[in-house]
Design a protein that fits this description.
six-stranded mixed sheet, 6 strands, alpha+beta, 155 residues, single chain
Length: 155
């Protein structure tokens, strides 16, 4: 009888300990929103160094401009990317359409990016980015937009 009680108690403790995993502290949804709003403020002021500092030292990126696979980038590479983009589109600007808090680490931002090239051609591009934020830093930036040039289609 004692063995059965011990076995039941041991099993119960084992199951209970599996369910008590330590989770990293959750970011308040308003904190995540403050982080992304600050991000877009830096973006629109073309403060690339400050924007890059919002990322972890090395972060994961998915972005059609990088190809089809996820890549990693350092803060320096992020600065270089946006500096180069600003050279092509000096008036580069993002306008937030909506912010969708997700779970404890994710927030989704829908926005429209606009700019004018030196030849006067303009672009307006709807974009959606899923940010992963851990310990107050962006660790993943998964950006989605339609980069298919259908100017030659018969529409």
């Amino acid at each position: 009888m004692m063995k059965k009680i011990f076995l039941v108690l041991s099993t119960a403790l084992l199951v209970a300990s599996c369910n008590n995993q330590v989770k990293s502290p959750n970011l308040d949804p308003t904190q995540k929103e403050k982080i992304v709003k600050q991000y877009f403020e830096y973006f629109n002021k073309h403060q690339w160094k400050e924007l890059a500092a919002m990322y972890a030292p090395v972060s994961d990126f998915k972005d059609p401009s990088f190809g089809k696979e996820m890549i990693t980038q350092t803060r320096k590479q992020t600065i270089d990317k946006y500096t180069s983009l600003q050279t092509v589109f000096p008036d580069l600007h993002d306008e937030i359409v909506n912010i969708y808090p997700s779970d404890e680490k994710h927030i989704i931002v829908e926005f429209v990016s606009t700019g004018t090239a030196s030849d006067g051609s303009k672009f307006k591009l709807p974009i959606c980015t899923i940010f992963t934020i851990e310990d107050g830093k962006i660790t993943k930036d998964f950006t989605y937009f339609d980069n298919f040039d259908d100017s030659k289609s018969n529409k």
